[in-house]
User: Fold this.
Amino acid sequence: MEAMVTHFPAMDELHDALASDRFLRAAEAASHSPSLDAAITAMRNDAHRGAVLVPGCPVGNVPPTPLTRHGVDKPDRISEQTLLGAAMRLGEPVGFAQEHGGDIVQDLYPLASSVGRQLSTSSGVELAFHTETAFHPHKPRFLLLLCLRGNSAAATTLCSVDDIIALLPPATVEVLRQPRFRCGVDESFGAGSAWVTEPAPVIEHAADGMWVLTFDGELTLGTDARAEAAINEVNEAIARARTSVTLASGDLLIVDNHRAVHGRSPFTARFDGTDRWLQRTFVVSSLAPSADEREGRVITTRFD
Assistant:
């Protein structure tokens, strides 16, 4: 992919600039390389096991990793072009109002205030395996992570729904296909702990016959004892089948949010400008379903 040179407004206008049709279309047009083209084709055709890694993507000039939530000040937008260009080829990139202020590109790096919490900005705790925004009526189809600066001790963990099902007894799979599970809301969305979804399955068949998984190891709850036992079996299967990848600068990881759960290993943050720094965006297949709960590309669904 070749770098695109363009003018950007002041930082307080950056969200609107990145979400603009002009930037997104230009990024999409620039987002071609043999490895990325092959990855996009695989994700579109479900010819994958839940995730695809594309190394060697342009990230531009990466400054020291910020230390505060609003400390990002990059000299160029090459990494944003890379991330959003790939996202546009898979669907429609969106943000969520409660997640990093609705940013269409979220900068993920350790914060001292988040060390031991189940948040994307934590470091000292393992992030539980989860479907991204498993509780959300407009959860993304794809999750894209672009590494600007890596950390050899921080692994992104993954597990495919196919690998999970292969380890479960048919009777357990049948329980998981029934509406016997609720899901709480992520801490980052700010809702009270009492909020849960209506009962729904954990595993379903999509129209194309592929398995779809909606699960959060911290937030999925069974409505009865057998359903709770099934959740424990899913967690045990994930522990056996899990894999991991340690992202380096220029690595783009594309996760199919229907077909895999992901997490992250704990690591020690230094808070000295050298910490791990990823950029993330979410992709939905269509903007239409969220039309009544969306402003531009920011989904505004409330959970209170």
